[in-house]
Amino acid sequence: MVLTAPQAPRMNAIAERWICSLRREGTDRLLITGRNHLSHVLETYVDHYNAGRSHQGHGVELRAPDDDPNVIPLPTPPDRIKRTRRLAGLLNDYLPAA
User: Fold this and answer.
1) Among candidates 13, 12, 40, which has minimal Cα distance to 26?
2) Among 9, 16, 79, 86, which residue has the fewest nearby CB atoms (within 10 Å)?
3) For residues 42-53, b (16+ Cβ closer than 10 Å) or e, as one string?
4) Which pLDDT value is given to residue 39?
5) How many Å apart are CA 89 and CA 8, to the nearest integer?
6) Which of 72, 75, 94 is closest to 83 using CA atoms?
């Protein structure tokens, strides 16, 4: 158990927000069959959260935390976008097609 630091009162709220996102977008929609399956689901969601899912608090462009800040994303025509399905289609990553 980790106690909330007195100098960081929002620490618990940030953790609760992340757990709520994980449950809403991932684990609440799946039947977890065991420890290995849960581990796979959590690893996939963490990868998606950090690299494939945009976040509101990262500037005007909605960027994921692992995005390169020196790269400006250009608009891509809809016919040139590649979708990668993860967790049986619960999570989708969209990238410009080559």
Assistant:
1) 40
2) 79
3) eeebeebbeebb
4) 95
5) 37
6) 94
- DSSP conformation letters of 5-26: PTT-TTHHHHHHHHHHHHHHHT
**CA distances, 60 to each of 3, 56, 63, 98 (Å):** 33, 8, 9, 26
How many other CB atoms are found less than 10 A from the CB of residue 86? Answer: 16
Q: Say if residues 91 and 44 touch (Cβ distance below 8 Å).
A: yes
**The two three-digit tokens of residue 53, written as one number:** 């899912």
Global confidence as pTM = 0.67
- Identify the helix (H) or strand (E) that includes residue 86: strand 81-86
Q: Report helix, strand or coil for 81.
A: strand
